[in-house]
Design a protein that fits this description.
This protein is mainly alpha-helical and 354 residues long. It folds into four domains: 82 residues, Helix Hairpins (Orthogonal Bundle); 53 residues; 68 residues, Type II secretion system, protein E, N-terminal domain (GMP Synthetase, Chain A, domain 3, 2-Layer Sandwich); 87 residues, no CATH class. It has 17 helices and three strands. Helix 8 packs antiparallel against helix 9 and helix 15 packs across helix 16. The longest helix has 34 residues.
Length: 354
C-alpha cells in the first residue's frame, strides 16, 4: 500500500492532494493568528523530522519543504490575502479615509478592471505619485471620464460634465483668471446658498477659505475630468480676460429709526397736536387752492389756534412784563395786545390762509 504522508504522518483525512495550506498545517480555515500558524508549523515540523532518516528521508524532506512554504505564505499578509481570496474568502471592502469606496474597487465592480489588476494599478500609482484615477488612464485601462466618476465616489463628491453645464457669468467674474488656472477649478453658480466649484481633486483648505470670503457662502466642490477643466478655463478665462475679480460690496443696512420716548408719543397723540402735525405736513409754502379739503380744514384749525394763542400770549406778556416793569406808573391796561392781536389776525387771514 502506497504511503500517504498527509494521512499517515499528519492525520489528514482523505481528500484533495496536496491539501490546502490550512488543512496541511492543521488550522481552521482562514486562520489569521500568526502565532497560531507558526506554533502549528513548529509542532508538525518536529513530528515529520522523525522520518527524516532511513527509507522515508526523501518524502519527509519534501513534506518539510511543503510545510515551510505554507507557513511562510500564511504569515505574509499580502500573499495570504491573495491566497484566501483564491480559496473563496470574501474580505470587507477597503474604504478611503473618509469612509467611501476606493476608486479601484469601483472600477473593478463595474468590470472596467479585474481584481488581479488592482494591485498592479495601485503599484503603478504609488511609484509615480499619481492618483488611482490618473494611473488607470495612463495605463489605458479606462477613459478619463469613467475613471473620474469612480474617483468622485472615493472623494464623496458629485461628478459634473462641464460640456453640459454652463457657469454663471457673474460668478465667473468674481474669481480671477490666475486663481482658476493655479488651482484648476471653475466656479459654476450659486445653488441652495452654496457656491458650486468644479475641480479635478479635493480643494485645499486655503482655497476653500478664499472662495468662502469671496462669495460669503460655503463651498460645495464637484468633480470634473482634468481635460474638461482645462478646456473650460480656456473657454471662460481666455488670456486678457477676468484678470481682476469683480468685487461685490455688501449693502449697508438702513439705520433703525430712533425710538420715541413715551413722553413724545403722548405729545404726538394729544388731540391738540393733530391739527399742528397736519399743518406742518401740509406746509405754508403751498397755496390754499393747492390743498386738499382735509388739509384746508387742518390749516383753518391751526389758524384759529394761532390767533387764540397770540391773544392770550400778548395779554400775559403785557400784564407780567410790560405793565409791571416798563410802565409801572402808567394806568393803561392791555397796551401790548392792542398791537399784537391785530397783527396776528392779519397774518392768519392774509398769509396763512392764502
Amino acid at each position: 500500500m502506497a504511503l500517504d504522508v498527509y494521512k499517515d504522518w499528519l492525520g489528514i483525512p482523505d481528500g484533495p492532494r496536496p491539501p490546502d495550506h490550512y488543512t496541511l498545517l492543521r488550522l481552521v480555515q482562514f486562520e489569521d493568528n500568526v502565532e497560531k500558524i507558526r506554533a502549528n508549523y513548529r509542532k508538525l515540523n518536529g513530528h515529520v523530522r522523525k522520518y527524516a532518516t532511513g527509507q522515508y528521508s526523501i518524502p519527509s524532506q519534501e513534506l518539510l519543504n511543503e510545510l515551510a512554504k505554507a507557513m511562510l505564505l500564511l504569515t505574509d499578509p499580502e500573499r495570504k490575502r491573495e491566497y484566501d481570496e483564491s480559496q473563496g474568502r470574501e474580505f470587507p471592502e477597503e474604504l478611503s479615509r473618509s469612509g467611501h469606496r476606493l476608486t479601484e474597487n469601483v472600477l473593478a465592480e463595474q468590470g472596467t478592471i479585474t481584481k488581479q489588476q488592482i494591485n498592479e494599478l495601485k503599484e503603478f500609482a504609488d511609484k509615480r505619485g499619481l492618483t488611482v484615477r490618473d494611473a488607470a488612464v495612463q495605463m489605458k485601462l479606462t477613459d478619463v471620464d469613467t475613471a473620474t466618476r469612480a474617483f468622485a465616489v472615493e472623494l464623496g463628491l458629485s461628478y459634473v460634465d462641464l460640456s453640459e453645464t454652463i457657469p454663471d457669468d457673474t460668478v465667473l467674474d468674481r474669481v480671477a483668471r490666475a486663481t482658476v488656472r493655479r488651482n484648476s477649478i471653475i466656479p459654476l453658480f450659486i445653488d441652495d446658498d452654496y457656491i458650486l466649484v468644479a475641480c479635478t481633486d479635493e480643494i485645499t483648505h486655503d482655497l476653500e477659505q478664499e472662495l468662502r470670503l469671496t462669495f460669503d457662502l460655503p463651498v460645495r466642490p464637484v468633480l470634473a475630468a482634468p481635460p474638461a477643466i482645462n478646456q473650460a478655463i480656456s473657454r471662460y478665462y481666455p488670456p486678457g480676460t477676468r484678470e481682476t475679480p469683480v468685487v461685490v460690496r455688501k449693502e449697508t443696512p438702513a439705520a433703525p429709526e430712533p425710538k420715541k420716548s413715551k413722553k413724545a408719543d403722548k405729545a404726538a397723540n394729544h388731540p391738540a397736536a393733530a391739527p399742528a402735525q397736519k399743518a406742518v405736513a401740509a406746509g405754508p409754502h403751498r397755496y390754499w387752492s393747492q390743498l386738499t379739503p382735509d388739509e384746508q380744514a387742518s390749516r383753518q384749525q391751526m389758524g384759529y389756534l394761532i390767533m387764540c394763542w397770540g391773544t392770550i400770549g400778548s395779554v400775559i406778556l403785557d400784564q407780567l412784563v410790560v405793565f409791571k416793569f416798563i410802565w409801572p406808573t402808567f394806568p393803561f391796561f392791555f397796551l401790548l395786545p392792542i398791537f399784537v392781536v391785530p397783527a396776528v389776525i392779519w397774518y392768519v387771514k392774509k398769509v396763512y390762509w392764502k
